Structure formats: structure tokens, C-alpha cells
């Protein structure tokens, strides 16, 4: 698999929870959004959050360095509208986006899928616990699932002995999760958490 087909993280099946998009993926997404209309930074963050149904909102520490780099590479131009900087796609940016459209589409679709999953999980959680905690739990559960998928993808080239340990751990984790409907003695829970 090439890194352009999967992003530089090489994770086609999920996104690690620590970083939902790498710098290039965020840049592609920003170019794609700016291809529809110029926008200032916080409006771009809003559009990313809306696209992903609340799954991802780039932090200022990710967004503004990406916008700066795109400006430095002449892919976007900035103008002032009062106190705000408004960013617009340049012809060079449009051409670069065109040559990377497949990757930009994959990033866009990945965020949309994550947003749909998060919305479905929120609805399911709200049925069982109609309070503010349900949304936080849904986000955390989705991130944990995606992180697990990414970790499994990263270990595909481990030796058979390590693969067997992973299978054993997954089997134990699945059994533990299924047993959550049944009250567990505190000693059993501690025992499970300390298994290698």
C-alpha cells in the first residue's frame, strides 16, 4: 500500500485517537473546503466539525500552522476582512488539489464515516443514558475503536508468537466486554486489567 493511498500514517482502517488527521491530510481537507468558498480560520474549523458531525474540530495549534504552510506554498492567499484573515484558494492550490483529489476525497469520506458512526453511537448511548455523559462516552468509544483498529493494522508484520498474543488479548477483551452485563467481583476485574 502506498502512503498516498492511505495517508502518511498508513492506516486505511481507522485513525489513531491522538491525531485524527496528519498535517498533509488536514491541508488537503482545508484546500477542499476553500475550493467551495473563501473562509476565515474559525469558519474553517466550524466546517470541518460540521462535515464530521462533531467528531473532529482542528485545534488552533493544528489549523493555523497548516494555513500558514499552505500560504507559504502559494496554495492559498490571505486577505484581511476587519480583524480576520480570510483564506482563498489560489490557482496553484487548485491545481495541486486537482492532482491530489483522490487522497482529498479519502480524507473527506473518512471524516464523514467517523461522524456517521459517532452520531449512531450517540443515539444508542442516549437511549440507555439520557444525559450529557452519553455524548462524551460515544466520542471516547469511537476513538478507542479506531485506535484499536489502527494498532491492529500497525502490527500486521509481527512474528506469529506476537500475533497469537494479540489474538489471545482480543479474545479475553471480547469476553470481558460481553460479561459486563453480569456483575463482576472487584478481584476479577483487577485480575483482568493486570493480565499481560
TrEMBL record:
Stored Pfam families: PadR
Record protein name field: PadR family transcriptional regulator
Signal peptide (UniProt feature, chain positions): none
SUPFAM superfamilies on file: Winged helix' DNA-binding domain
InterPro entries: Tscrpt_reg_PadR_N, WH-like_DNA-bd_sf, WH_DNA-bd_sf
Domain Transcription regulator PadR N-terminal: from-to ranges: 30-97
Lineage of producing organism: Bacteria, Pseudomonadati, Pseudomonadota, Gammaproteobacteria, Oceanospirillales
Coiled-coil segments on the chain, per record: none
Organism: Salinicola acroporae
Matches recorded under PANTHER family: TRANSCRIPTIONAL REGULATOR YQJI
